[in-house]
Structure formats: C-alpha cells, structure tokens
Write a structure and sequence with these properties.
The chain is α+β, with helices and mostly antiparallel strands and 563 residues long. It has 15 helices and 14 strands. The strands form four sheets. It has a six-stranded antiparallel β-sheet with strand order 1-2-3-4-6-5, covered by helices on one side. Strands 7-8-9 form a three-stranded antiparallel β-sheet. A three-stranded antiparallel β-sheet has the order 10-11-12.
Length: 563
Amino acid sequence: MLKTKLGGRYSIISRLGSGGFGETYLAEDLQLPDHHCCVVKHLKPQSTDPEILDIARRLFDSEAKVLHRLGNNDQIPRLLANFEEDQQFYLVQEFIEGHGLDQELVNGKPWSQAQVINLLQDILGILEFVHEQKVIHRDLKPENLIRRNQDGKIVLIDFGAVKQIYTQVITNSKRAKSTITIGTSGYMPSEQANGHPQVNSDIYAVGVIAIQALTGLDPEFIPKNPQTLELEWSNLVEISPDLANILDKMVRYDFRQRYPSATAVLKDLESVAIASQNNSSNYSANHEKALSNQSTAILLNNQNQNLTTDIEISASTQPTQLEISNSSQPTIAESSSTTALTETLTTTKAQTFINQVTNRRLIGGAITILAIISGIAVHKLYQVNDSVSAPSPSGLSEYKSENKAKDQQAEALLQQVQVLDQVQAKIASGEDPNDIATLATQIPESSPLRNKVNTVLVKYQKQWEQDKLAFNEANSAYKSKNWKNALNASKKIATPYWQRKTQWIADKANTEIASATAPKPIVPPKAIVDSEYTAPPTNSYTPAPQPVREPTPPSKFSIPEAQ
C-alpha cells in the first residue's frame, strides 16, 4: 500500500493510472503556499537484490536528468523533483490541465485536412526538439498527447522514463542484448516491436495518428496490403495528394524509407499548409464522405469543418435533394428530368433503409467500419444517380437503355448496403459469427465490399472465441466457488451475447464477495431486569454427615468396704 505522503511533502490525491512498469498519481505539494497539483510517477523495482537496485538507481538518476532537460520546452511537462524512498523511486512532474487527444479522435468522426495539418505541425514541432536531445519517445499515442486548457496547444507526456528504467533493469539483470518492447499496438512500427526503435519510429506513430484523424478509423481497422504490409488508407478520404504522399512516407513499413527527421516532415508540410489555406474553398463542397457514426454522408463547409448530414429521399415530383442538416450549407440537387433512378430511390424500401442508417448510433470499432463501408456504398449510389443526364429528343432510346442499366446497378448496390446494415446490426447485438458470415455471403465475392466485411468478421470471430473461453473460465470458477476468479473472468468478455450468458455468474460472485468481506454486526448485550436476576450458586463446602456415636455406659465397679 502506497503511503499517502511521499518525500515529506507530496500528498497523494488519486491514482491516474497504473501498469506493469509503475503507477502514476495526482498529488499536491504541501510545501507550496497554494498546494500546487503535480504528477508523481512511482517505479517499484521487481527485486530487492542489491545489484538490481544499484542498476535501477543509476538509470533513474540518468533518466531524471534527461527529463529535466526536456522540460525546457513549453510543450513538455517540467520535472519538479526526483527522489528515492524505501528503495522505491519517484518522479514529480508538472501537472497539465487539459484532456487527452483520444477524447477528440472519435471513431466515425473524421477531421478536416486543415485540422490535421495543424495537429501535425504542433506534434512535429515538439518531436523536433525531443530528437535534438537524442531522445526517442517510443510511446506516442493519443492518450499521451494532452490538449492544454490554457492555450489549446498539444503537450507531450509520458516519455516512458519509468518504463525505460524498468526494462533496462530487467535487460541488465538478464544479460540480454536487445531492449524490451515499449509501445502501443497500432501506433508502433515493426522495428520498434522487434526491440530496435529508431528516431523515425516516433514519426511513424504521428503519421498513424494523423491518418486516424482523417479517416475516423481506429488504427487496428486501417487496411494493410497483405504483401507489402503498407497502410492502405488514402482511398477512404479525399485530401490533397501532397498531404497523402507526406503521410504515406511517414508510415512506411521499412524505416529506411521513412522521413529521417521531424524537421524534414515539417519542411514538406509547410508548402501543403500554404496551399491548403489558399484553396480551402476547393476542399468544402466537393468533399462528400460517408464517415459519420450517425449518417451516411459528410460535407465539409468552407472552413473545412465536418458536418453530419441526413439523406432525405423525396417521393414527390420535385427534384431529389441531398439535404444538409445545416440550412446554411449548399444543397446538391439533381435534374428534374432524371426519371428511372429517381423512382428507384424514392421507394418506401429505400426510404426505410436510409432512415435506419442515418438514425442508428453506431458503437464499437467493427460497427463503425461497417458503417463507413455502408456509407461509401451509398455515396457511390448517388454518384450513379448524378451521372444520369437529361436525354435529347434524338437520343431517347439510348437514354432509356443507358438508364435501365444504371437503375439495375443502383438496385444491386442498394441491396448490398442493406445486407451490410443487417450485418452491423447483428454484430451490435452480439449474434453468432457463423450466422453473420452466412448473411454476408449475399454480397457477391466480386464486390469490393465483401473483402472489407470479411476483415471485420475475422476480428469479430476472434473476439467471440476469446469471450467463449472467458465464459467457460467463469463457469468453472463458479462451480468451484472461486468467486474472485469468476468475477475476473466475466470482466474480460466484450460481446453482448457472452455478456448476457455470464451476467448471472458475475452477480452471484459479487454477492458472495460482498457477503464474505462485510463486517459482522455486533450484537449488544441484553439488558438485565431485577425480576429476572438469579444469584449464581455459591461455591461452599459442606462436609459429609458423620455417624452419631452412642455414649459409653459407665462400667460397673464396687467400692471396697471400710475396715
């Protein structure tokens, strides 16, 4: 149990996080007049062996000096103190008021190009300074990028000093030659995962964060080329080709093909930023994306901000419109002479489907990516619609033939999107993956949507099997009345189906644990009433009765006569 007061001055307020490398706490400095808040990072060595402690102590001092030097940058927390207490090590850093970038990167809600460029310039500016100090961060991810409340700037935290001390202690103690992996899956390049981080490993992570912001996709769902292992994302968004090229170079699988430094990225990014500002109007009305978790299309306004849209199909004789929820935004209208495809899209079936896609709040990574696929398909449906032009009197027969084919194409695409909608609904409710896979076969193998759905189903199948094992583990622990293990196993489950099956086990385990740990009530002694009082028997000794002896009669004797 950690003490509530450390170093004679830091009072622990709450725990901010914990992991295999140590723990982080929010504390207040009792020696300052206004009790300033600070962050205390705690490293607990895994051994009390004197040799191990000596290695940890030397590494701790070295890393503290590095953090102190990095704190000279305004966008890196300052190191306030470092100390050792009871053979445990502590770093005290400046507390940054703000929120993590992970709160801004919401699945299905992409950022504009201008927003991403600003983010890149902010982060790369910090990295430029960090790398000049011969330091690699090694754990760049949205959670370690704080948007400071004071000025909205990005602050880079968690340089992994505690992690590095821990891993190097283990490495030295085991006489290993390679470093232990530090990083987060999805943001960590291959060379870092293999224990050989490079300076541009950090650049890879920043590139992934930028792609995540542009696409609205979690890194785990960004497609990869199975042969080259390169990220394939640019077909999901419409951005400047120059920016796409920069990001592609930042996230190259082979670190030797990446940018060598943050400075090099910033140099190329500068011209793109200027062009983006000059041509921002070109990236507004033309950017129609199906990437919102509540809609099937997104239009960017003149300030490059994302707008959630609703698709409204009109059954009247008026031109069909893609209505924008914000009335001040432009409206895309089709020609009133467009007939065949318009009639197809104005059916009740199409209206029902579009309303379902528009109004459903999508949850989870798999659901989000299916919504994106579905939205892209609907977008293509409208592209087919927009390609229909009014016929000339001399070409009426050709017009009817052409539009009949387009009508069939639109109907086939709409049916595929409807299947996607059913698939995502079944995943959201946690149904059997085999049943969902059977449903997905209604999408032709030749359709590009089929591969995307199969990728999602593979991930869902894996999660399903993991949850099935966790359920069996919880059930086995329940039968042996190991309530703690039963509860822990039930917490591992993510899919709704197995959550429902395990809920009663978790409830029973919680009840038994609460019952076992609850303090036993103290029963007060019963009050004594005088009338109920009975004196306890005395411990007196009474001798056994002795037999009464009869008196001995006087013996007969004669008195001699007087002479």
